[in-house]
Amino acid sequence: MTDVEVIIVGAGPTGLMLAAELRLAGASPLVLERRPEQGKTPKAHGLSGQILDLLKYRGLLDRVHEALTEHVPAHRFPFGGVHVDLTRFEEPPLKAVPLRQQTLERLLEDHATGLGAEVRRGHEVTGVSQDGESVTAEVRGPDGPYQVTARYLVGCDGGRSPIRALAGIPFPGTTYPEVNWIGQVSIPEGLTVHDDGDIETPELGRIKAGFTRTDAGVFALGSLTPGILFIQTTEDDAGEVDDDMPMTLTELGDSIRRVLGADVPLGDPVRLSRYQFSARQAERYREGRILLAGDAAHLLPSTGTAINVGMSDSVNLAWKLAAELQGRAPEGLLDTYHAERHAAGARALVQSQAQVALRRGHDEAAEALRTVFQELLDDEQAARRLSAHVAGTDLRYPAPGSGHALAGTFVPDFALETDEGTTSVGELLRSARPVLLDLAGRPELRDLAEGAGVDVRTAKADDRPADVLLIRPDGYVAWAGDTDADADGLREALSAWFGG
Ligand SMILES: Cc1cc2nc3c(=O)[nH]c(=O)nc-3n(C[C@H](O)[C@H](O)[C@H](O)COP(=O)(O)OP(=O)(O)OC[C@H]3O[C@@H](n4cnc5c(N)ncnc54)[C@H](O)[C@@H]3O)c2cc1C
């Protein structure tokens, strides 16, 4: 008998999302977080990609929008020094919201504790051991050291992950020498802002909005909020920095001087942060009863997408872990977590490292590469494809038993007419239960799913993308079929995912 079912180490976005998803799946997690209160250093400024669709399905997107203090900016994003303009799309292929990480964490913590998860702050995990039955965490809490046992432990403890080290999982990759300083500052006296976003200072003259490259690095200028300048400097070789140390306005000013050769007047800071990029991935996401998720499992060398990948790890892991705990998981289900999410992390690293190559060079050849890339992105299809890669919406997991185009992809949302009224695919997924959705009256397929413990729903839909869909709790289509769909394929899928 263990104290709890799952110990989650770390109350960042990954750990808190995992806690909530485990509760939805009927498991009891305990979150142990070493910080007595939420970290004050600003980190993420935005949340983007596939996870926004999942949050909508779980009924959380409205809470995200209520929590926004800034307007949602036009859909443009920097891809390694190249601007990708998505304003021409009615439905942007990459969605993003300017949600601060601290706000996201508060929202997720409320959601997880509201569902019954326990979060202990000021409790640091200092050691881990495991055997065939359980895993034991050594914890240093406010009242002294203690032990907790669980069936599984998940390290959601960030890029420096002590759990990864304790489990002996290698974390190969690169830490890049470039350091980025970011500041959002008010507009001070002595600085003119032109209508096109360029600024002008007495010492430097006019500095254009966008990127200015010098031998010492890059100065990027923009504005997300009226009256506030967004400034980022990137220096090629500025030594190691500690992400956890609060940044100062003087640091930003010093970096600007090193890059541009003179001072730029800066107003009051609204937000300051700095970071150094790494491209690393854990060799394994599972070692026995210990699993890794989020930054503990992967570090991406670009901004804006890491939380999407980390929270998506949690959504993928939770239902599989719960099935394992509840004794209903088919053989090998938990190992599909590594198979699917390691591949997803590796793919995220590809787009992220491509950004490093695109932004790095300062010579004419590098400039030519950026120009060619920028021209290619004028093409709608290229912009869509790149956006899907960055968002993680182009992922396709293996889907035994079905060769349908939707099988293995994230299920699209569409309206459904049922005997009880109008609903949608997203609403069916609110409770994170697996669903067989019959849109064409196939009772023999419904019977199979019912026997496997899957929720069964019949509905009608205009322009249905398939006749029957078997949807996993994480929103991925496990199996899809049209009129010629055979029961054997569905049987294979039910047995692979739900043991039916
Ligand atoms: C300046 C900056 C800007 C960024 N901007 C963006 C952005 O715009 N969009 C985006 O998607 N990403 C962004 N990121 C990346 C994003 O912050 C991370 O990807 C995210 O924090 C990872 O979440 P996580 O939950 O996996 O890990 P973390 O947020 O690092 O959380 C890990 C938690 O584990 C705790 N912990 C560690 N060791 C222990 C232990 N032994 N016992 C108990 N608790 C422990 C830590 O205290 C911490 O709270 C940015 C990062 C930085 C630094």
UniProtKB/TrEMBL annotation:
FAD-binding domain mapped to chain residues: 3-349
Signal peptide annotation: none
Cross-referenced InterPro entries: FAD-bd, FAD/NAD-bd_sf, RIFMO-like
Taxonomic placement: Bacteria, Bacillati, Actinomycetota, Actinomycetes, Pseudonocardiales
Organism: Amycolatopsis coloradensis
Pfam families (UniProt xref): FAD_binding_3, Rng_hyd_C
Keyword entries, A-Z: FAD, Flavoprotein, Monooxygenase, Oxidoreductase
Protein name stated in the entry: FAD-binding monooxygenase
Alphabetized PANTHER family for the sequence: BINDING MONOOXYGENASE, PUTATIVE (JCVI)-RELATED, TRK SYSTEM POTASSIUM UPTAKE PROTEIN
Cofactor or coenzyme needed: FAD
GO molecular function list: FAD binding; oxidoreductase activity, acting on paired donors, with incorporation or reduction of molecular oxygen, NAD(P)H as one donor, and incorporation of one atom of oxygen
